[in-house]
Amino acid sequence: RAKRVTGEQVALFSEEMKVAAFLRFTLEGDLRRAIGDDALRVVYQPIVDLHRRAVVKAEALVRWPHLARGAIPPPEFISLAEETGMIVPLSRSVIERVCADIAVMEPYLPADFRFCINLSGVNFMDTQLIPTVSAVLAAAGVPPGRIEFELTETVLMRDLDYATVILGQLREMGVRVAVDDFGTGYSSLAYLRRLAVDTLKIDRSFVNELDDGQGIAIVEAVIGLAHSLGLEVVAEGVETPSQLCALSARGCHLIQGYLFARPMPAESLLEVLGREVSMPGMLAGNTSVR
Ligand code: C2E
Ligand code: MG
Ligand code: MG
Ligand code: MG
């Protein structure tokens, strides 16, 4: 009897695996088509400067409205895209979309307003990254100073010599670089000093832990590190007034999170750009989308 149960479980498991493999296979084809058909969307999440009481940057976040399955979470299809190499055309299409949106918004943008674009490790290792970025920016007439690329700590630290070269080329082009999800990897002060980056983004997990007091030490360390290296520091995932207070009391005045605004379409971003930010939540509007 025990044997039969085990047998059934094995059969059930392999049936599930077949379904999973099939879903993944169809998803791969769907994603390939979505990239080809330019069906991916980009939304923008405002980043607020508490000192200037204004939106000073926005992070571009890709969205895939899947016809049959609804919205698929970015981490799910981004990892699929990374594994299949589709991340190269995907990122290109995101950069193109952001540049097209910037071209439309340009007359209304404050001089130093920046757009943050995520790049994956595969993009960072792609030998065509630099020529692609400069070609796309030039074609759209977007000044490189408008762009800040976000790369995770792990990607940057994997090969320090290589990272130094690529960051140098990006800097030469005039774009900026932020270290995303900072604090989740293993970088040391010495490593960070060698890299030509402009911004540290405190990972959402530490901001979350601020409420129960756990994240304070790490958040303080990251803010101190950023300041001593002359870098900007952005806190991401800020959801509560108490997190906001804890961050601003410790000298972090660049805030990204649902407390101020969720990611939104370009048209909505344009609407909130000119607003003076005096109250959390006031940018949320009713056109925001997740
Ligand atoms: P990330 O770069 O760390 O982006 C921040 C994520 O946190 C976004 O999730 C954003 O919507 C979410 N977020 C912001 N504020 C809050 C908050 O207050 N509370 C909560 N719970 N979440 C908040 P999203 O858009 O789902 O993206 C997830 C990840 O997918 C990104 O993390 C990034 O690693 C990746 N990703 C998104 N768009 C792109 C893209 O165009 N290219 C690449 N390569 N990766 C992307
Ligand atoms: Mg990011
Ligand atoms: Mg992040
Ligand atoms: Mg994150």
Automatic annotation (TrEMBL):
All copies of domain EAL, residue ranges: 24-277
Name assigned to this protein: EAL domain-containing protein
Lineage: Bacteria, Pseudomonadati, Pseudomonadota, Betaproteobacteria, Rhodocyclales
Shown chain mapped onto the complete sequence: 428 to 717 of 717
